[in-house]
Amino acid sequence: MSDHVLVINAGSSSLKYSLVDAASGEAAAIGLIERIGESEGHQLHRGPNGETSTALSISSHEDALKAAINAFETQGPSLDDLDIVAVGHRVVHGGSWFADPVLVDDDLIAKVTELVPLAPLHNPANLEGMRVARRLFPDLPQVAVFDTAFHQTLEPEAYTYAVPHEWLKEHGIRRYGFHGTSHAFVSGEAARLLGRDPADVNLIVLHLGNGCSATAVRGGRSVDTSMGMTPLEGLVMGTRSGDLDPAIHGHLSRELGLPLDKIDRLLNYESGLKGLSGENDFRELSKRRAAGDDRAQLAFDVYRHRIKKYVGAYYAVLGTVDAIVFTAGVGQNAAELRAASLEGLERLGIQIDDERNTASSDKARVVSTDDSAVTVLVVPTNEEWQIAREALSVIRP
Ligand code: AMP
């Protein structure tokens, strides 16, 4: 029988789950519970018998996981019939401690708790997910898989901010990088698609979803990445500004009399595409652009310009680039954005093929011309499968 891993992604008011065959990546079931702690919550469960959507009030992550277990019992697949070997947890911030997935124990919980100040929006929810799953699945090994782990291979020259030296040790001020699970998965798939050993391939991976990040990958190892100490730095995102002159914080605080916390919030939730155009969803933004909306056009232009800038920067970091890889909601689907981000880079050996780029497909594929020196790929990401594989690698080293 195949090894299944129950993958859990606990957010502040949501819990996503997926029961994944670690060998094939096939999901026997997926589910999402939203608005935990509010009076009107919602559960979606998709299993072998189809999809159900239920309104229910869920007060805690513990109740959410119980609701998930209940959905497995009533709608299938039965958890007892499948060979579940582990629970895999997505954990956003592993700091400098974790370069690999690890078994969840009291020491890990203590370390992830210490990292809460670096990821105040994510780590508390991830911790709660791990605590609850340990209580409800006491006999299964629990494995934490960190978003930051893939980037622990960065050299000091790439992860160090040029600030007073003592800040690094005393306050953990450095670049950690995020979306590592996706960058790791997509890098492996890209090498496979190129028919090459991952150790021989240089890639620029562009994860463009609600959050966006670029990573320079040399021989399967991350050597630079656009997100920094927090997931705010780098590319323009749905609601996050990405790169910004750090003096803007102080300036706005003085001009508007706003506390820094408030400015932090505005940069995380009210900026990016949303800040510029009022619309954070890329599909809606595209509709508005097509209708001649100037702000939507500006948002699109700033977004693609930033991507192009990072492609150039990471080209220089890597020296030679075998492929540029687009992934996640925007990267996989928005052909126009892919073409616009790489426009004018023919002299760098990057040539998109219009027909391939605009052909509709949900498969991993080449979208560059045959004579493009740098291959351009679209590779659907699958973080759940990567978490399942990594969890299995911990319990069966
Ligand atoms: P993700 O975080 O990977 O789920 O990506 C979410 C983003 O992908 C949102 O901005 C969506 O509007 C965008 N997206 C999803 N599907 C499409 C599509 N078919 N065309 C353009 N953007 C899309």
Automatic annotation (TrEMBL):
Compartments where located: Cytoplasm
CDD domains associated with the record: ASKHA_NBD_AcK_PK (cd24010)
EC number: 2.7.2.1
Pathway: Metabolic intermediate biosynthesis; acetyl-CoA biosynthesis; acetyl-CoA from acetate: step 1/2
Source organism superkingdom: Bacteria
Binding residues for ATP: K16, H207, L208, G209, N210, G211, D281, F282, R283
Predominant cellular place of this UniProt entry's protein: cytoplasm
Binding site for Mg(2+): N9, E383
One Pfam family in the UniProt entry: Acetate_kinase
Annotated substrate binding sites: R90
Keyword Ribosomal protein: no
Alphabetical list of HAMAP family matching this protein: Acetate_kinase
Function text: Catalyzes the formation of acetyl phosphate from acetate and ATP. Can also catalyze the reverse reaction.
Record's protein name: Acetate kinase
Organism whose genome encodes this protein: Kribbella orskensis
Record lineage: Bacteria, Bacillati, Actinomycetota, Actinomycetes, Propionibacteriales
